[in-house]
C-alpha cells in the first residue's frame, strides 16, 4: 500500500514516533469482475490544519490500495484483504518514515473506519447480513418476517452492539454476539471502536436505498391505501422528468439522489393532499439534503435527528392503521435512525462517502474493457472568440487584486457582430439606459458612452457554454442562468449604502463587449425573473421580468426549468428552477426585483 502525505500533514507530524499519528478511512466495494479498495486521509489527530471534508475527498488524497479484476468477486474475502491487513498492522505498530526535502518524519497510521455497501460491510464485520433476523450490524434490532424477507422496526428499547462482542467474539455472551458469525480481523486494530467502525454510506443508504423506497411508496409497492400512492397517470407525468417511470432499475446513485433532492419536493410533494404526510416527506428530504452536505452545524444535526424520527413515526402510524405494509421497514429505513450516531463519531457522511470508489470502479472498468490504445478525440474550436485573461477587461477585483466571481477565463464565441446600444434586442430597446445604470453602480464615469458594441450569441464562463436568446440555431434551451448581483441592503430604508450579494434567476438576451475608460467590459443583457420559494425550490412567478445589464462575473451557472404537470392546464403554471448544486451548495440568499 502506498501512502502519500501532503505538506500540511507532514509539517504537523513532528519527529516523534506516534506523537501525531495519521488517520485513514477505507472504502471497499465489490462488483462482478472487479474488487476495489480506496483509502481517504483524515489527517493527523493533533493538527489544527487538518484537511477539511471537501479537501480530504480530493483525488490527490484518495489512495488506491487494491484492485483485482476477475470473473467475479473474491471467493474468499479475507484472502483478498490479507495483504492490506498485514500492512495496516505494521503501519499502526511500527509506523512509517516519510522524507521531504527539509526533514525526515516518522508517523504511525491508523484506520478510523471502513465503509461501503451493506453486503460488503457485513463481510468486513463478520455479520450475518441484512437478510438475517439480526440484520443490523450496529444494534440488536430483531427482524420481522411475515412471509418472506426481514423487516426492521426501530423500537426505543433496541440496544447498540458492544465493542466487546466484536473484539472478544468467543468470550462474549450469546445474546451480545447474535448476528455475528465470527471475529473480524479488523477488530484487532488498536483504534477499532465497535459497531460504528463499520460506517454508514450515504450513497448506498440514501440514494440507492431511501430514494428508491420513496418511489416504491409512490408506485404502490408498499400498499395503495396511503396518500403517498399516486395514480399511474400522475407517476407517468412525474417520470418523464427523469425517465424513472419505465426504467427505475437502470438508475444510478446520482440519478436517485437527484430524484430525492429535486423531483420529490418539486413534482411529488404537490400531489400529496394530506398536510401531515407532505410535511413528513419534505422533512425527510431536508434531512437527507443535510446528510449529503459537507458541513453540519449543531442545529442542523438536531434537525436531522428530529426529522428522521418524525418520518419513522409517521410510517409507524400508517402501519398501525393498516394503510401500509410492513415491508416499508427495510434495512435502509432502519439504518436511517443511526445516522445521528455516525455524525457524532465521524462528522458529515458526505466526507467519507463511497462515491469516490464508484469513480475508481468506473475508471478501471473502462480501462479493462478497452482493447487497444486509448483514442483521444479533440474537438477543434473554429469559431472566433474573445478572451478575457487580465484585469483590464473591467473585471471586479478583490482587495487582494484577484478577480471576483469566475473560476475560468471568459470567452465570447462567434459569430461576433458589430451593433450599437441603440439597437433593439428581443424587444428591449433601452440598452443605453441600462448600460448607464450599470456603470454608475460600478462607480465609473459615464457621461460620454460609446454607442458601438460587439455582440455574441454564446459565451464560455465558469467552465460552461451558455447560449443567448438570440441564438436561434441552438437545439437546447441553455440561456437560463443563476446570477449573484451586488445590491444595496438598505435600499428601501433610506440608510447608508450597505452592499450585499443576492441570488437572482433569469435568461441571457445577448452577450456583448463595450469599451469605457480604456477597459473592455464583458457584459450581458439579461431579463431577471421574479422568483419565490416553494418547498425550498425556486419557482418563477408568471410573466414578471426585468431587463438589466450585468458583468459576466455575475453569471454563475446554467439552470433548467421544470414545469409542474399539476398546473400545466391552469392559468398559473408552476415552473421550478433546478441546477446541479441546488440543495447542496450554500443556502440561497434570494433577491427580489425591488432590490434591483
Can you tell me about this structure?
By secondary structure, this protein is of the alpha+beta class. The protein folds into three domains: 7-198, no CATH class; 200-352, no CATH class; 385-595, no CATH class. Helices cover 27% and strands 24% of the residues. Strands 10, 11, 14, 15, 16, 17, 18, 19 and 20 form a nine-stranded antiparallel β-sheet that branches. The chain has a five-stranded mixed β-sheet with strand order 3-2-1-6-7, with helices on both faces. The protein has a four-stranded antiparallel β-sheet with strand order 8-9-12-13, with no helix packed on it. A hairpin with a 2-residue loop joins strand 16 and strand 17. The chain is globular. The termini are far apart. The model is unreliable at 1-19, 31-36, 44-50 and 371-385 (pLDDT under 50).
How would you classify the helix and strand content by structural class?
alpha+beta
Largest sheet composition? 9 strands, antiparallel
Portion of residues in beta strands equals 15-25%
**Mean pLDDT, all residues:** 79
User: Treating each run of at least 4 consecutive H or I residues as one helix, how many helices?
Assistant: 14
Q: Please, what is the oligomeric state? A: single chain
Distance between the termini: 57 Å
Q: Residue share in helices?
A: 25-40%
